[in-house]
Task: structure prediction
Amino acid sequence: MTWTVTTYLMYLAISTALTVWVGRTLYRNGRVFLVEVFAGQEGLARAVNHLLVVGFYLVNFGFVSLFLRLRHEVPDARASIEALSTKEGVVLLVLGAMHFINMYVLNSFRRRGLAPRQTRPPVAPDAWTPPGPPQGQPRQAPPPPPYGYSAPGPARA
Amino acid sequence: MRSAVMRSATVLYDADCALCRNARAWLESQQQLLPLEFVPAASPEAQWRFPGLDHRATLRDLTVVADTGEVWRAERAWVFCLWACAEHRLKAERLSSPAMLPLARGVLGAISRNRHWIASANG
Result:
């Protein structure tokens, strides 16, 4: 077995191990996010999480596979380690980028899921005014001010 | 600052302005997470509902009064209205960031000041 083939095999083994490790990390921790987003609907959370991780594996293994080929022969152990180091460095950067994209997707799911449960608007009020008479009363021909109410306009003692 | 739970809000809009009436119709057509009621600004009904409010100011800027008595004006009132809509809550959040709110103030302020002109220019 030549050094080139050995380098390829080592590259595939290390890249696969790294991808599976990152994928499993995403799967484990993504679940926590998604269970919160889908308000306890475990089945739906698991399905979405699984689909996200499948996409992650497909993109990464696709990249690892396309990036396999070395443009030159590897004559010895030193050249093999150097070639591996370069390849794995790029694979790690791609994995890192994919990981952040995944986190962004999970977080946007979370924000979308939590929004309807907010009870306060995102901006603070400018002022406060005492609420007027109870609503739901006839709206045509505004009724006279309630008894004891003193406001500008026709006085009703 | 009061922080009671809001159940509804009243939007005081300029009923003499076609742009504002269109905006009201659009808001009414949206699915609302917080029910919005629309009352013409400075109308007798508005004055009856909110006797303590400066009603001349409500003719200048869009005003929202929650059932808790809290008042939002101008661009904050717009953010409030978007936030009340199910479809636009995330947009409201983005718009309320410190970077976006001054921009919203500028754009909405310019539209608001020229609203009668814009409405007449569009027939």
